[in-house]
Design goal:
Helix content is 51%, strand content 13%. The chain is an alpha/beta fold. Helix 4 (64-81) crosses helix 6. The longest helix is centred in the last third of the chain and has 20 residues, at 103-122.
Length: 143
């Protein structure tokens, strides 16, 4: 199945955001192709647009220390390699660790809020919540 990466549809070069209506049109076009797997959130821009079209929501919900470790590790790898991200963007040391909208700070700010909010949001959708590597392995074995 095609992978629809919402970040790739949202971010333009120079870390410029795609306007909301254009972003929604891009997402709609990507999801219209039939079966798909998507990652990301963007509920503030898309509302339930993606959730309403999903057959199943898989919520990967590891503990905060694991989430932070993974975010920091990926960030350091991308800083070292100069890997290009969405819209030809690259992470910078300052942007990754010292700006208010860095992914690391975002993970810290939102982790517990989403843990409280998502059970209510997902209650009306078919979903599974996987909190550990073992949960993931058991889930995949049962498919």
């Amino acid at each position: 199945m095609p992978h629809v990466e919402l970040d790739a549809l949202f971010w333009r070069p120079g870390w410029q955001e795609t306007p909301s209506e254009e972003f929604k049109q891009r997402v709609a076009a990507a999801l219209a192709k039939g079966g798909w797997v998507s990652d990301g959130n963007y509920r503030s821009r898309l509302g339930s647009f993606v959730l309403d079209r999903a057959e199943l929501v898989v919520w990967l919900d590891p503990p905060l220390p694991i989430t932070l470790w993974r975010v920091v590790r990926r960030t350091i790898q991308r800083l070292r390699s100069g890997e290009q991200l969405w819209g030809t963007n690259v992470e910078t040391l300052r942007g990754a660790f010292f700006e208010r909208d860095s992914l690391i700070w975002w993970a810290l700010r939102t982790h517990f809020r989403w843990r409280r909010r998502l059970p209510q949001v997902l209650a009306e959708y078919p979903h599974v919540r996987l909190r550990s590597r073992r949960d993931i392995e058991l889930y995949l074995q049962g498919m």
